[in-house]
Amino acid sequence: MKKWKRVTSVAAVSALAAAMLAGCGGSSSEGSAAASSAPAAATEAASAAETGAAGGTWKFGAIGPLTGGAAAYGTAVVNGAQVAVDEINAAGGIAGAQVELQGQDDELDAQKSVNAYNTLKDWGMQVLIGPTTSACSLAVSEYTKEDNMFQITPSGSAADCVKYDNVFRVCFSDPAQGTASAQYIGQNKLATKVGIIYDSSDVYSSGIEQNFVAEAANQGLEIVSEEAFTADNKTDFSVQLQKAKDGGAELVFLPIYYTEASLILSQANTMGYKPVFFGCDGLDGILTVENFDTSLAEGTMLLTPFAADATDDLTKTFVATYQKNYSEIPNQFAADSYDAVYAIKAAIEKAGATPDQSVSDLCEALKPAMTEITIDGLTSDGMTWQASGEPNKEPKAVVIKDGAYVSAQ
Amino acid sequence: MDPIVKSINSKRRKNEIITYGMVTAAYVILEILMKAGALSSHLTGLLVPMVYYAIVAVGLNICVGILGELSLGHAGFMCIGAFSSAVFSLIFQDSIPEVPRFILAFVIGVALSALFGFLIGIPVLRLNGDYLAIVTLAFGEIIKNLINALYLGLDSKGFHVSMKNQMALGLAPDGKMLINGAMGITGTPHDSNFTISIVVLLAALFLSQNLIRSKQGRAVMAIRDNRIAAESIGINVVRYKMIAFTISAAIAGAAGVLFSHNISTLQATSQYFGYNVSIMILVYVVLGGIGSIRGSVIAAAILYLLPELLRGLNKYRMLIYSIVLIVVMIFNWSPKARDFRDETLAKLRAKFGGKPAKEA
Amino acid sequence: MSFLTSLVNGLSLGSIYAIIALGYTMVYGIAKMLNFAHGDFIMVGCYIIFTFVSTLKIGAVPGILVAIVLCTVLGVATERIAYRPLRHAASPLAVLITAIGVSYLLENAALLIFGADTKSFTSVIGWTGIDLFGGQLHIQGVTIITILASVVILVVLQAFIHRTRNGQAMLAVAQDQGAAILMGIDVNKTISLTFAIGSGLAAVAGALLCSAYPSLTPYTGAMPGIKAFVAAVLGGIGSIPGAMIGGLVLGIIEIFARTYISSQLSDAIVFGILVIVLLVKPAGLLGKITQEKV
Fold first, then answer.
1. Architecture of domain A175-304
2. With an 8 Å Cβ cutoff, is A263 touching chain C?
3. Which domain range does residue C217 map to?
4. Does the distance separating the beta carbons of C267 and A232 come in below 8 Å?
5. Is the pLDDT of residue B331 over 60?
6. C108, B319: Cβ pair inside 8 Å?
7. What is the pLDDT of residue A21?
8. pLDDT confidence of B353, banded at 50, 70, 90?
9. Is the pLDDT of residue A35 over 90?
10. What are the chain A neighbours of C2 within 8 Å (beta carbons)?
């Protein structure tokens, strides 16, 4: 009898799953249509994957964590790309063809990121924007390399993310940021005694930290405290701050994301500790944390390519549209992916590519074109790319004054 | 052999053959579909993870179902298997050909996780119930945290180990970083595939089902059902508990080997090896039926696929997944729902032909 | 002084764990189920208060009151819909898995409603705290309030359980559900009441958690929930004073490990100490070892 129950329970689960499976075929095209504002004329069948393109539309895919603790970053990437795609479609598309965008969730898991990539491939994706995070980007690049698909990661900053020739990125690399931060602090004599608080369980954070420490020695910076926290332990920073304070750090380097940084700033404030806080692009977004007391961030410096309250027209329009559509202020992830879409557009136009080309042909055409284009984007003016996949742009140092970014020079 | 045991065992054997047959049939069908190009790349990519989660569910079921102790740390054993084998493969990437290298890596991964299972089992198995569960959770988190802070390099002078940072290794310029702290391991060769995974799954099934049928297995289940009675008839409780726990850890380690050789990057972070992953595997085991090895395989396969198949629903998919989970649990486990179901089935049977239920 | 500073830091972290663990241990000790979704009730409470304080600008006090009421309703409803049908299931793990399902459900619902972005929480406590030794040692207002609140809750809970009929009924249900029914106790009602109290306390804990560590995401409650579970086990399952002590001890160990040993390895050290404590005292600090009989 027990066995019979077991069998029925398994049968019940399978029936449910089968129902989901059956429901899935219909809903996947629905989902992609919802993700794109372009008129989705073609119904996406899995068989479209082999041909690569579906008639006269471009199919861009984006990958990032849309659920889970890092959901803010992936959501920003997908939304930022969507804003760009909407603009492009409204202006007549790329090479006369409309663009469809589909975003897929990877839950910050490299294996799921590959699953997401395969889903997009089945949908008929021609160009990949993503994945959002370094480890996922690295894992997926093995597959894009194999398929020879053009990949541009907005924010995969680990050095190895662009080790294949079909992968480009919009953000700075971790080594570049770590080294540039140390150089900036040393050359501008911001401090001699430096404390560091970083996330030792995060690839981005520990990558920058390693390179910062290596360069700090050359710049004559004394690192008085080098304290870590982990993803499981990121609410209380009293010890890390206390050690920096006890070591007499005049500057605390925060190569972390703004979520934790906002907590660190408020805890430093309650402790009465007021060093200069210095961060990288991950810190951008701190002023947009809903309800955050921006006076706490007064005097905080960061090397970032994007500032949501910049006054140029491009940024203003982007921020307004983004806010209207998603009722959030965009952060640098959104800006990076917005620029990624325009970089792809420019490369396609440069190469004279068409949507009916195969994925591999398209990639071969775009690779050389990428090195020839120049983009005036949100994250930099006159951005160009090297064949290695690295962007040429200068990190800009900004300082927060009266709740807004001001150029530090 | 006792005739009762014999009759139970012959029943079990029949059941086991069904399990092997089911896995093999699924394999053959999927292989054919794959060769015929009828399987989307999405589904093809899901096959290996689906199988290694099924393997670790089988391993956990030995601990939860057969031994009767709740473990919330099996992701930790998976982590050990994954890292030790990946380090081995990385060192000998250029010096040993693929097949023997993977076999050796597999043996090392399994052996090391078995060793840790044994060592951790010594203190853990002295505890009971929820206390045992929380200590396994603690060990899982300790393993994850230690590996996350581990820097390991290799150069002409040998291994360099540090728990601080990369610079502290003092690696020669010709050296190779093996484990780079939180950045983990990159560039693990892609050695596992669907066929290998299925072979490992069959081996895990063979091991666990033979364990259940054996003298040792009966002793373990006797301890689960009544420890005091088992002790009183002279069963060495500690010994048999250790055997079951170590095997359980070794199988989880085997899944870890497949995990690390299926993807080029490997980090010891929460989303791969945290307690929530251990809990996810526990969900597979409970939904598949506690103590039912075949159920674990089926539930792991379905539950791994479910959120993936829900991708079309975009941001609603995890919400729907959670609702499905709750509904299925209530439907399957609530005594009332079970009665209702049994009654309905009986009525249906009475209506259509009145054949007696087949015990599959 | 650095020792005292660490001790104070440990107390402020520990007091948060303690107040969460109090609610956790209510459900855990009496309904005998590991409510993995408890941390997410905390998160729900935080979002309700956040909405009242920062979005609607109505104020903290009505916010907390509404949060307590809504969390209580949510807790009772969850118990009624998702947990009660499984109370007599063949395995106690069934309800544990359902609790995990509820946890996913709450997190993903919050993700859809409030978005993934971090929100900064305005402290519901205006008091900044006191300075000792001429400003060398600062104790935060929220720490003092949290400790006071947990002591008050501890005393009230103890009095409620030991002095009132409903409380006695809870004890009876915790001891032996079958016997409790025979004594004429309405087990369903008693467990509903337990969930009501536990979930209401989750809202209070949420207000204090987010006042001390002012950032709010759909996953804010998950890790503190697990830590509170650890604290409850450390103190001894089902022991209300044990939960309080377990929480404080856990917080202090965590801070000391980070201060004196390594911030990178503090998780491993905390869990290592937990293992050692449980090996020495297998039923936690204040738990009673019940000898299993035939």
1. 3-Layer(aba) Sandwich (3.40)
2. yes
3. 2-221
4. yes
5. yes
6. yes
7. 42
8. low
9. no
10. 242, 246
A290 and C13 within 8 Å at the Cβ level: the answer is: no
User: Is residue A342 a contact partner of residue A377, using CB atoms and an 8 Å limit?
Assistant: yes
In a domain, C289, yes or no: no
Q: The domain at A51-171+315-392 falls in which architecture?
A: 3-Layer(aba) Sandwich (3.40)
Task: Report how far residue C289's alpha carbon sits from residue A285's, in angstroms, rounded to the nearest whole number.
Answer: 52
* Higher-pLDDT residue of B168, C25: C25
How many structural domains comprise chain C? 1
**Whether the Cβ atoms of residue A305 and residue A396 lie closer than 8 Å to each other:** yes
Q: Which H or E element spans position A105?
A: strand A98-105
Per-residue pLDDT band for A26 (boundaries 50, 70, 90) equals very low
Residue B10 contacts by C-beta under 8 Å, 6 or more apart in sequence?
A: none
If we measure between CA atoms, which residue out of C32, C37, C62 comes closest to residue C48?
C62
Decide if A258 touches C, using CB distance below 8 A: yes
Task: Say which residues have a Cβ less than 8 Å from residue B282's Cβ, sequence separation at least 6.
Answer: B60, B64, B70, B72, C93, C96, C97
Q: Is the pLDDT of residue C275 over 60?
A: yes
Average pLDDT over residues B132-153: 91
Answer whether C54 sits within 8 Å of A259, measured CB to CB: no
- The percentage of chain A sitting over the pLDDT mark of 70, rounded to a whole number, equals 86
How high is the ipTM of this complex? Answer: 0.90
State the average pLDDT over residues B248-252: 97
Residue C242 lies in a domain: no
- B171-211 pLDDT, tens digit per residue, is 877 788 899 888 889 889 999 999 999 999 999 999 999 99
Residue A169, beta-bridge partner list: A153
Cβ neighbours of A250 (radius 10 Å): 14
Asked whether the beta carbons of residue C117 and residue A290 sit closer than 8 angstroms, the reply is: yes
Over 70: is that where the pLDDT of A36 sits? no
Q: What is the CA radius of gyration of chain A?
A: 23
Does C274 reside within a domain? no
Answer whether 0.80 is exceeded by the pTM: yes
Q: How far apart are CA A121 and CA A125, in angstroms?
A: 5
Nearest to A72 among C117, C129, C138 (CB): C117
**Tokens read off for B208:** 């666990």
| Best of B66, B142, B279 to mutate (most C CBs within 10 Å, chain C) | B142
